[in-house]
Amino acid sequence: MKKLMNNPTNVVDEMIEGYVKAFPNYVKQLEENKRALVAVRQEETNKVGVLIGGGSGHEPAFMGYVGYGMADGVAVGNIFASPSPDPIVEVTKKIDNGQGVVFIYGNYAGDLMNFGMAAEIADLEEDIKVERVIVTDDVASAPKEEMHKRRGIAGEFFVTKAAGAAAEKGYSIEDVVRVAKQMNDVTRTMGVGLSPCSLPQTGMPSFELAEDEMEIGLGHHGEPGIEKGKLQTADEVVDRLVEDILKDMPIESGNKVAVLVNGLGSTTNMELYIMFRRVEQILSSKNIHIHRSFVGSYSTSLEMGGASVSIAKLNDELAEMIDFAADCPMYVQR
Amino acid sequence: MKKLMNNPTNVVDEMIEGYVKAFPNYVKQLEENKRALVAVRQEETNKVGVLIGGGSGHEPAFMGYVGYGMADGVAVGNIFASPSPDPIVEVTKKIDNGQGVVFIYGNYAGDLMNFGMAAEIADLEEDIKVERVIVTDDVASAPKEEMHKRRGIAGEFFVTKAAGAAAEKGYSIEDVVRVAKQMNDVTRTMGVGLSPCSLPQTGMPSFELAEDEMEIGLGHHGEPGIEKGKLQTADEVVDRLVEDILKDMPIESGNKVAVLVNGLGSTTNMELYIMFRRVEQILSSKNIHIHRSFVGSYSTSLEMGGASVSIAKLNDELAEMIDFAADCPMYVQR
């Protein structure tokens, strides 16, 4: 697939350089490590730090969500690969205000190892209290009995938002972690893949799928899904995705939820709105109230074709976090 | 190309339905015409109305830019086709507060005809003062001597923002028009196409390009560009785009500009940041100050591959408009 790039080995560094140049009032690169970015704040804060990160290729995640109401810093990995502990530690040192730092990342082997090592280093060498919240929203990636094996995908946006809002409100690290874990506990995502992306360095497609096929539950890095089949209509696909979510996490009539219909890269907003239409039909038929909606490409897999539906079951406190303002280069909420 | 949709003939109506359901606090469909959407405002206003619109397929444009600081209403056409006069007139009637309404749309035959007819109807039948601002930012679409023949593309975002901010500030209709026209006069866009989109109803690609080719100046609906050639590096492409812009509209050292690096659909944010990196290098080498940057898929051609660079040369008043807050479903600025 054609890409607008220079030397493929430099895509991540050039991307970061461009991003920081585009939003100098929002983010800066640390001198200690160029894969470590922190928010530029107009005023000193005394709040808990929120750190996000993971592999590149999911833009606007994760870099795009550094700013007021979201994360204070991000560690950026290579494409679809965890950042090494170094940038994580550097960001941690920078964003700690003595209240500790919460790491939020998806449940992937590389991230578990590197964020884990970084947490240990920050604790032992820098005496910074670090807590970790691991995102596991992808219903298709493991059965309910093995929830801890589930991968993190688009729902990480909600978890970051919850932690970021709680930290901004001055919550203690224990409460930021409580709110973020609670958001993860009530967030479920189901996705569908239609077409692969290609990695800049190899040009190879991330998976294969016939021109008339789709795959339910395909992972954000092309991990195999749970069912391959003929492409169905948007309504049929959404019916399936929402059904799987509600089977996994029953939601009672009268409850309120946040909904994210997320595009994986090359899927148009038009398709996402058409999908949202069906999500809304299903939920309103069950008297489930949509508290706030998010529709767009919030967490991508380069130019993969496909989309996911995330539903978060909200209590009043979580709804407050969802409604909290944000001001990041790639996500602003008034 | 695979699409998540139901009956292809219903994509636009289902898209609008989903969009309005997703953002009920922002937009509502008029009973008089379902292709006519207006902003939901918490308070009565007495300002000049700003109306945008055009064909569908450019999402998040134009629908996404209805809200505070941007447009008060939008008329939605079929895919790549102008809205008919009816929804334009209905929106006009709804958003007029006695101060008149400014129409902003791209320079396309269908839009010229339909917005023109709607303006006449609003004037003659409803006694509403209507002014029209036609966007002509696409440098590649006609030579400088025939500027009035140029098409409108991504730069329409800046023109809408200028008009929306001016209206919000309480400017008279004459001044809203003056500011919007001025923004159009100082905005230039150059784009590159890499891969076609396909229309939902036909499934046919919008143009053809070999796997190793790109086309400079390709239009937003697949209109032929000015040069087809081998795909070059991001830096080479950006050098060419910015050079053409600066040749067309010289910018002196010390001037300030707004920059929009816009993705056409399936081009990743990663590539857009890499492109922005080069734009910044070129402009800073010329001592041109980037006042504010916009990077993302602001105006697409369904899932077309490619991107454009828009540069607006700002005076102090236009910079104020660029900095003005916005609160729309698809664009928020604090």
Describe the structure.
The structure is a homodimer of 334-residue chains. Chain A is of the alpha/beta class and 334 residues long. Chain A contains 8 helices and 14 strands. Chain A has helices spanning 11-22, 85-95, 109-126, 156-168, 173-185, 234-248, 269-285, 316-323; strands spanning 27-30, 33-39, 49-56, 73-79, 101-106, 130-135, 187-195, 213-216, 227-230, 256-263, 289-296, 305-314, 326-328, 331-333. In chain A, the strands form 3 sheets. Chain A has a 6-stranded mixed beta sheet, sandwiched between helices. Chain A has a 6-stranded mixed beta sheet with strand order 9-8-7-12-10-11. In chain A, helix 3 links the parallel strand 5 (101-106) and strand 6 (130-135). In chain A, helix 6 (234-248) crosses helix 7. The mean pLDDT of chain A is 97. Chains A and B meet through helix 1, strand 7, helix 6, helix 7 and strand 11 of A and helix 1, strand 7, helix 6, helix 7 and strand 11 of B.
